[in-house]
Specification:
- This protein has an eight-stranded antiparallel β-sheet with strand order 1-2-8-7-6-5-4-3.
- The chain is built from four helices and eight strands.
Length: about 180
Amino acid sequence: MPAELTGTYLTLDDGRPAVRFSRVYDHPVHRVWHFVTDPDELAGWFPSRAEIDLRPGGTVRFTGDPNMPESYGTVLAVDPPRTLAFDWGGDEIRFDLAPEGPDRTRFTLTHVLGEVDTAARNSAGWEVCLTALDAKARGERFQGPHAGVTAPWREYYRRYLDAGLPSGAPVPGADA
């Protein structure tokens, strides 16, 4: 059974729906920044390989997801090594990093949803992705979003549905 749910559904001050996840890693901010900006690091935990031109207005190229075609986004905000935000298929992904001492970092991922009915689906996906990032931060390996049918996505999804998160969006690559 997957670990406890860690995502929070919220409405931002501007009225947009979002899901948010937070972790603390035993690494300095610059190391965690590398986890969220280096294409090879991202490939181990993020849903797609992302090559990011780290400047406002820069291009983000997404590849390698068997359920999604190659696509492009735009960097919306970047403040190394603290903040990165970009658009991705009509959604906004934001990473905020804050030091919690010299060798610890609070990592916060906020996924601003283009459509409210994607909350449960996307939260379940992020649980799998962030489990892989958690393992990476510990120096371990976990297949994350690339584990296929062995990933615990369906159980997370069921639990987010039970928790009342908005749902109903199609699930790429699945019959559910």
